[in-house]
Amino acid sequence: MTSAFFASIAATGFMVAFLHAALPTHWLPFVLVGRAQKWSAGRTLGVTLLAGLGHVALTILLGLILVIAGLALEPRLGHLFHWIVGGLMVAVGLFYIARGRHSHALPEAGRRTYASDRAAITALVVLLTLSPCEAFLPYYLAGMKHGWGAFLLLSVVLLAATAAGMLLFTGLSLAGVRRLNLDWLERYEETILGVALVLVGLAVAFLKT
């Protein structure tokens, strides 16, 4: 796998993580709760970032487990390993495409008021942390051939894309941009992620160098 090919994996992973973070479920609850609790814009963005860090941390932990399992299996599978990884990504992508009509409901945390700021922050952080970006996990396997440096780089990509998406759309909403026109993203997000996974999976399977 060449460095250029890995760069394309990282770029596609950034797109996947950013689109995932741009979903209203990843920023609208913070706006709604922030307004209900009368938080400043800075505090709302801070809580958003804190929840995003938890979201990313659990995803990285799951990615680490996946890579460790892959490293254990790779010596036994030999030259078949890249076919298995590519096939897994294609299968996950097809699953996302098939599930593409699924609607994303607003988390309960975004529809409640809280007796204290601590309760509100805890609810927002816990709910997002326990909902990792599972669509990004196959990218850790795809970059495994480049070693732990690639794992670290992909984790930075995940963090940057997630923070950018969540803070951007939270900030825009707080600034008074009332209509962000993201209905199309909510409708087609899983289809877009599925197509990206299928394409990367095919590349991993057939373009190994």
From TrEMBL:
Top-level taxonomy: Bacteria, Pseudomonadati, Pseudomonadota, Alphaproteobacteria, Caulobacterales
The entry's keywords: Membrane, Transmembrane, Transmembrane helix
Protein name, per record: Urease accessory protein UreH-like transmembrane domain-containing protein
Transmembrane regions listed in the UniProt entry: 45-73, 80-99, 119-141, 148-171, 191-207
Species this protein is from: Caulobacter zeae
Keyword ATP-binding set for record: no
PANTHER family associated with the record: OS01G0277700 PROTEIN
